[in-house]
Structure formats: structure tokens, C-alpha cells
Design a protein that fits this description.
single chain; mainly alpha; 6 helices
Length: 129
């Protein structure tokens, strides 16, 4: 599927949420590299933890930006966030594995799938999405 088509068929609010979240993610990613380069171990760990949480709960974090939006918009954003979290979680696993192949890398996408499944179940039961 053409990525441009996917991006431009999103509702405008969802697209803004994805781009805003991507900006936050990129900023955190650059900050963790700078912290590592400057031997700021505590700061590096804090930023790495935030990146990990952001990755594994991406669909849910999108909802923070859409609190006042309608349910169908929040549902679309959640689904897109859950989908985007999969390749990000593979990258996260790669980083935690010391940037070399290790079967443990596959644990992170599994955690992301389970997290989003449970979040979806809980949010649907409360009519949030």
C-alpha cells in the first residue's frame, strides 16, 4: 500500500496527532543519543524508559491528544497507533538486544500487541474508542 495514500486519507486530526507524536518520539530519540554521548546515564535511562512506554502504548498515547474528539476519530487514531507501534517495538527490541540479532527482539512486538489488545478491550468497554 502506498504510504502517502494512507497518510492523506487519515482524518486531519488523526494526521496531526500522528505527526505530533512522531515529533515527540524523534526529539526523545535524539535526546537519548545526546545523553548517551555525554555519559549522562541517569538521563539516558529516563529517556529510554519514556521511549519504551511511548512505543508500547502508542495507540493509547494518541488518545491524549484527542480527548475532545468523537469516538470514531479516537478509534481510528488508536488503531493507527497500534499499527505504528509494531515496527517501533521491533526497533526497541533491537536496541535492548545491543543492536544485534537476538530472538528476544520478538518479545517487544508481542508485548505491544498484547498491550494494545488489552487497552482496546478496556477502552471499548468504557466507550472511549
Amino acid at each position: 500500500m502506498n504510504f502517502d495514500l494512507v497518510v492523506w486519507t487519515m482524518q486531519a486530526e488523526v494526521r496531526r496527532t500522528v505527526l505530533f507524536s512522531a515529533g515527540i518520539y524523534a526529539t526523545l530519540f535524539i535526546a537519548h543519543i545526546i545523553a548517551a554521548a555525554n555519559d549522562a546515564d541517569v538521563l539516558f535511562r529516563i529517556i529510554a524508559t519514556i521511549i519504551t512506554i511511548h512505543t508500547l502504548f502508542l495507540g493509547g498515547t494518541f488518545l491524549f491528544f484527542l480527548v475532545q474528539s468523537n469516538q470514531s476519530l479516537r478509534r481510528e487514531a488508536f488503531q493507527i497507533g497500534a499499527f505504528i507501534s509494531l515496527p517501533l517495538s521491533v526497533g526497541l527490541g533491537w536496541a535492548y538486544a545491543g543492536m544485534q540479532w537476538n530472538p528476544m527482539i520478538l518479545i517487544f512486538p508481542i508485548i505491544s500487541i498484547v498491550t494494545h489488545f488489552l487497552l482496546r478491550y478496556g477502552l471499548q468497554s468504557k466507550s472511549v474508542i
